[in-house]
């Protein structure tokens, strides 16, 4: 059993590390990077299906709890200013996901500088992006490259 424990732990760590790779996106339809050309969002029905989870009170509470837990962990291990890029990216994405439910946003972070690209349905949501991102501890600057692009009208059913 003593020989099995290190193997199991290393497998778990390897799985966790591989699961954390990739871009932080607020929906599956969001662009793959902040520099990708913006496409028209999918039809409204598709957007409604995607946002179903993000609008629930349980999801909002879970995201806010996750952000608080990461900030508490960071305070114990390194303070407010030294944040891992992955943590910043994930926390900003979570904050945007629960507050801008119809947005299709991608988040990148490097040394406290956050870049947010993609689309939002209206100017009000676009104006919310920067203040929401700055609420996350460790975010030093925010560059919003997202644009307003309403969802495409639903195709007529035959």
Give the tally of β-strands.
5
What structural category arises from helix and sheet content?
Answer: alpha/beta
What portion of residues is helical? 40-55%
Radius of gyration: 18 Å
Q: Which percent range describes the beta-strand content?
A: 5-15%
The largest sheet is: 5 strands, mixed
Tell me, rounded to a whole number, the average pLDDT: 75
Q: What shape does the CA trace take?
A: globular
Number of domains in the coordinates? 1
Work out the helix count. 5
Write a structural description.
By secondary structure, this protein is of the alpha/beta class. It has one domain. 46% of the residues lie in helices and 15% in strands. It has five helices and five strands. It has helices spanning 4-19, 44-51, 57-77, 85-99, 123-134, and strands at 24-25, 104-110, 113-120, 141-144, 147-148. Strands 1, 2, 3, 4 and 5 form a five-stranded mixed sheet that branches. Helix 5 (123-134) links the parallel strand 3 (113-120) and strand 4. The longest helix is centred in the middle third of the chain and has 21 residues, at 57-77. The chain is globular. The termini are far apart.
């Amino acid at each position: 059993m003593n020989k099995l424990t290190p193997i199991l732990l290393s497998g778990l760590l390897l799985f966790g590390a591989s699961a954390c790779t990739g871009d932080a996106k607020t929906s599956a339809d969001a662009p793959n990077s902040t520099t990708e050309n913006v496409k028209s969002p999918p039809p409204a029905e598709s957007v409604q299906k995607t946002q179903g989870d993000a609008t629930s009170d349980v999801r909002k509470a879970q995201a806010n709890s996750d952000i608080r837990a990461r900030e508490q962990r960071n305070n114990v291990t390194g303070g407010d200013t030294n944040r891992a890029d992955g943590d910043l990216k994930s926390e900003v994405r979570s904050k945007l996901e629960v507050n801008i439910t119809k947005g299709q946003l991608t988040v990148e972070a490097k040394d406290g500088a956050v870049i947010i690209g993609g689309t939002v349905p209206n100017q009000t949501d676009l104006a919310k992006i920067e203040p929401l991102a700055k609420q996350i501890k460790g975010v030093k600057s925010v560059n919003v490259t997202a644009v307003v692009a309403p969802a495409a009208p639903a195709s007529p059913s035959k």
